[in-house]
# Entry
Amino acid sequence: MPTVRQAPHEAIVAGTDLRVLAESFERHLRAEGKSPRTITHYLAGVAALSRFLQSRGMPLHVEGVSGEHVREFMADLLSRQKASTAHARYRGLQAFFAWLLVEGEIKDTPLKNLKPPRLPQEQPPVLTEDQLRALLRTCEKGDFTSRRDTALVRLMADTGARLSEVLNLRWQPGNPKENDVDFGQALMRIRHGKGDKERIVHLGNKTLRALDRYLRKRATHRNAALPWLWLAPKGRLSPSGLQQLLLRRGAEANIPGRLHPHIFRHTAAHYELLAGAPEVDVMRQMGWTSRDMVARYAASAGQERSWASHEKFGLGDRL
# Structure
């Protein structure tokens, strides 16, 4: 049988090939407790760079990757993709080459003199209060699904918790210490947030009431013994299940576009900042460690805040 010969530019050089090192990088990220979403984004940057280098006949072994190679890759990416995508790939490569530097695989990072792509100052989309009320009106029936969806919408809008944080909430009637919702103190524990960090967030009274009404229905569910707070007809509610129910509810409420879980995070941050909440408190509620995220989410509230501020402090009405 004739041997199929692999093209030279497709050969993987064990140990020094970017694609091989990416596997070790993934193991490192998991050991560091990075979220699955972060790991996916970081690895996507390495994979995209590897494909680009391979398609151009450029070096794939780590010692041969230069700043010029990465610069050409970023230019190509910006010509085909959104700036936000290019920025995400840059951040993934930044983390990858920083790790290689610490591991002694390289003596210097090719990103040393390369700045990240500039992001346009886009305002994250948010739901209006009327849209949120319309969404809740689609869940007014007293059946299990309606009560669950009401509690979900209220909790996400109230706390701004991430999709994974919401779906990882636990509820065990027979073991109260393991429950992530404390009705007595109006608190919710997020144990599996980004970076596997724990934080405690406050819950509003209407959210607590919606959760209580849902839990009474949950107690009659055939899978009530499962330790997860959110249940679907056949078991634990999945990410795709949550996304599908929001799409359905959004369509019923005549909300334009595709309703997705992350818009509730934008919305929660928007209204807290708009109401005058200190940035440090919003950071703690959302689980952010960088003020960069506050600045991004505050952009959507910035115009309305400036109007309210001028109405209160503007010189014109004092003359």
